[in-house]
Amino acid sequence: MHIKIEQLKPSSTTLAFENHQFSDEEIEYILQCKRLLGLSFKQCILSEHHVEKIAQLPKLVNLNFENTQVSDASLTHISQIQSLNYLFIVNSKLTGEGFKSFANHKKLDCIWACNTQVNDQTLQYFLNIPKLSTLLLHDTRVSFDGLMTLAQHPKLRVFANLFSTAQIAEFEQTQRDLQKTNKQYFSHTQVEDAKAKLISFFDMMNQWEAYAEKIGFCDELQQKCQQIFQQYCTDKPRFGYRPDGLHYSHAPNFSYTDEIMIDVDHASKKKLYIFTHDRLKGQNRYTLILIDGEWRIDEKHHFSGGWKKYGL
């Protein structure tokens, strides 16, 4: 592959290169694309000086190095890209020492460091990246003990083929435990009643979605959804969410198919959190409020960069 300056438009927002050894001149051509948001190198040869130059791109959001050697020293330059949200590194000899330069980076949300030499010692640097929500560590030197140190990060979801489903579940449990109030306001019976209320709501909504498949969107469908919410949920506006804004999933994967309860937290004297795994193994948190001795479902949050509101 040979890059010609006339092939690069200064208005380009994404560029991808494969199987190429870059010259200094070619890197300068790339730097002319001041609007560049995404840049990908696959099986390319870059010098550290080239990476330093690339870090000057003012709007870069997404940067990918696949089978392209990136050193820990290069990470120091990459950390200067203040707009960077996504950094993908696959198959590199870096140890992760360079990630210490990303401490307090204001926007970095997702890091892949797969098939690298990242290890327990260098994991600590990820704890200092406040916005980091997704970390892929496939084929690294990280141990389970090392993984568990990351549970201190309240927003982080870790994916790694090094660990079993049970080990990832233990990590998630520890992460939740570190955020809990560690108080018990409700009796065992009250907690079981709350769980039963939530399970019944799941069943009713799955039945409603099965019915929705048959009749489609209509006034009757809206009324049936409103009736379920009146029976199970707190009375408040839910703009954009059910029952105000209708949507439904299709069989066999209805909204609450295979939702499994995994944990609870006594949030306050009137509020209980019930945590679940959905069918995709994502974590959900349901807020139930005790009103006049009766549990009411108030809100749902999904774990993605912390707990984010998600419609019931």
Automatic annotation (TrEMBL):
Residue runs in coiled coils: none
InterPro entries noted in UniProt: Imm-NTF2, LRR_dom_sf, LRR_FXL15/At3g58940/PEG3-like
Name of the molecule in the record: RhsIA family immunity protein
Domain named NTF2 fold immunity protein: residues: 195-311
Domain of life: Bacteria
SUPFAM superfamilies given in the database record: RNI-like
Domain F-box/LRR-repeat protein 15/At3g58940/PEG3-like LRR: 28-174
